[in-house]
Specification:
By secondary structure, the chain is mainly α. About 70% of the residues lie in helices and about 0% in strands. It contains six helices and no strands.
């Protein structure tokens, strides 16, 4: 019996193109129906999944400010996540050491670290969304003020109290 398994015949595979199975009767009917649709019948537009519209909006950039795209926000969120996980791990391990075995304390420390990591991430994203929006509004107000000041300078008559009229 050991000799049978040791000497298995080696079969060489041919490098020929794979052979497609013969189409069944239902496949032939489906092909005829597809050909009939191509010949003159208009196909109904395919309805996508619910998430397809959201994906299209995200590709167009119409979703608004993005925390991950903001350089300071992305770094701050990453730093907050790391500190949250580390503090949760250390605090969870320290508080569970006297109550159980070392393995149980380690498991609790890992769970506490993961929970604190997620909570810190959610809190940081929440805060930075508001900060990014406030920053954008502040820049918008600066641009509006600069535009209004430029219009006011252009609207002044040449002979009035403009700085160029005082110099001459």
């Amino acid at each position: 019996m050991a000799a049978d398994t040791a000497e298995a015949p080696v079969v060489e595979q041919e490098t020929a193109a794979p052979v497609a199975p013969a189409p069944s009767a239902s496949a032939k009917k489906g092909a005829k129906a597809k050909d009939a649709n191509k010949d003159g019948k208009d196909k109904k537009p395919k309805k996508g999944k619910k998430g397809d519209e959201d994906a299209d909006d995200a590709e167009d950039g119409a979703t608004g400010p993005n925390v991950a795209a903001h350089p300071r926000a992305a770094r701050a969120v990453a730093r907050t996540k790391s500190w949250g996980g580390l503090v949760g791990f250390v605090l969870g391990g320290y508080l569970s050491l006297p109550t159980n075995t070392l393995a149980a304390a380690g498991l609790r420390a890992l769970i506490a670290g993961v929970v604190c990591y997620v909570v810190a991430w959610a809190g940081a994203v929440f805060v930075w969304k508001r900060l990014v929006i406030l920053e954008l509004k502040g820049r918008e107000q600066q641009m509006i003020g600069a535009t209004q000041a430029a219009r006011a300078r252009r609207a002044l008559p040449v002979g009035s109290d403009s700085p160029s009229a005082r110099a001459s």
